[in-house]
Write a structure and sequence with these properties.
Spore Coat Polysaccharide Biosynthesis Protein SpsA, Chain A; 7 strands; seven-stranded mixed sheet; alpha/beta
Length: 252
């Protein structure tokens, strides 16, 4: 039997964090909100959630990146005895009405990583679409196939035990794709489910914490490392490739 909580990393999302928590709690009782060093407005919005039943707030002393915040949340969830954790972003971009479908698949396949692949509307910036295609290309090479449809979407359910064992050093936007690749290498099967994604306007509270220069450099370096490791696995540890392929076949 699975026991699932939610982990929501947030950095300066004062207009949307309460909406996201409320939407998540329609399906999941316990929500871990990780404040990654938000400014005063964001901190105030989070402070109002502290007394809300089922909400646990973790405060990081300073901004360390989305990946660092997610890792803190996942570790805390594991320490509390949860078997699975739903990760969603705090910017209200994801269609959270899809959570019950994600939970149902996680119950059916508790050993699997459940990943959302985004169905964008017209609000998506074209530059984001092109960048995603590059990351998808490299992820396909690194995992020796198409087990991961989209490695960037921050809407997913982790099986916590293998995830904690596989946590990478990545602390920023490079975390989401790297942990997905490493879980595939460790034989965790992947279920890809569609979810609508829209980009909110500034008036709606839309905030982008993606740094075009630095995050693209981090992601490029991540793919350099992962592709090099993938070649090593192919040449010297092919059993890991076979294990990943067997895991993918389990769900077909």
């Amino acid at each position: 039997m699975t026991r699932t909580c939610a982990v929501i990393p947030t950095y300066n999302n004062p207009q949307t964090i309460a909406l996201v928590v409320a939407a998540v709690q329609r399906s999941i009782d316990t929500v871990i909100v990780v404040d990654d060093g938000s400014a005063s407005a964001g901190k105030f919005a989070i402070s109002e959630l502290r007394e809300q039943p089922g909400v646990i707030v973790i405060e990081r002393a300073e901004n360390g990146g989305k990946g660092a915040a997610v890792k803190d949340g996942l570790r805390h969830a594991f320490e509390l005895g949860f078997t699975h954790a739903l990760q969603v972003d705090a910017d209200n971009q994801h269609d959270l009405e899809r959570i019950p479908a994600f939970l149902a698949e996680s119950e059916r396949y508790p050993h699997a990583l459940i990943l959302a692949y985004p169905e964008f509307d017209k609000s998506v910036p074209k530059s984001r679409l092109h960048a995603r295609k590059i990351t998808i290309f490299w992820t396909t090479l690194e995992t020796f196939g198409r087990s991961i449809i989209d490695p960037m979407c921050g809407f997913r359910i982790y099986p916590l035990a293998p995830t904690i064992r596989s946590l990478p050093k990545s602390n920023y936007m490079d975390f989401d794709p790297e942990i997905a690749v490493r879980l595939v290498w460790d034989g965790v099967p992947v279920i890809n489910l569609p979810a609508q994604v829209r980009y909110l306007s500034a008036q709606e509270g839309g905030v982008s914490n993606f740094h075009v220069l630095y995050d693209n450099i981090r992601i490029s370096w991540m793919h350099t490392r992962l592709f090099t490791l993938a070649l090593f696995l192919f040449l010297f540890r092919p059993h890991k490739i076979l294990r990943a392929r067997r895991a993918a076949r389990e769900l077909r």
